[in-house]
Design brief:
single chain, 199 residues, alpha/beta, 8-stranded mixed beta sheet, 5 helices, 24% helix, globular
Amino acid sequence: MRKLIVLSFITLDGVMQAPGGPEEDASGGFKFGGWSVPYFDDFLGKTMSAQMDRPFDLLLGRKTYEIFASYWPQVTDETGRGINEATKYVVSHRPVDTDWKTTVLIDGDAVAKIKQLKAGDGPELQVHGSGNLIQTLLKHDLVDELWLKTFPVVLGTGKRLFADGTMPAGLRVVQSSVSPSGVVVASYARAGDVKTGSF
């Protein structure tokens, strides 16, 4: 059984759209691309390296895959080697250029195929970016852990990590820390159903 982990940069109001640059995803007229960059420091760089310095494969949506494929094949540092050696599973209903080493297209019934992938042997499956894919994963209760970096900024608009269709679920904090620039780094694991009560 393979663990499926969503790694995401989000704002305080849950926006995950285009954290890395203005051209990353301007859909819907989004004007704040690159909102994470002013807060990115050595602490976050080391955090990301630690989270990717372990065996993993990637599960990506088409748009994120295309962004990754245009950048990572030329990167030869430790993180680049990990990404380039990982199997890249790309969920898309459109054709995808699979020339990047060890790329596998997932089309058709993506949910059934991802369930099969999780049930098989292999390293953890990491999901980066891939906002539309994450909505499908959350709707079908396929996410085991969330490794979130919450930035001290509110945007009010943009694609959100927890959008319509998210299944209610209890979570527990596995670990947490705060970067010098105020980014809350926290990992959450599934912890059964939502519990309620009253005061």
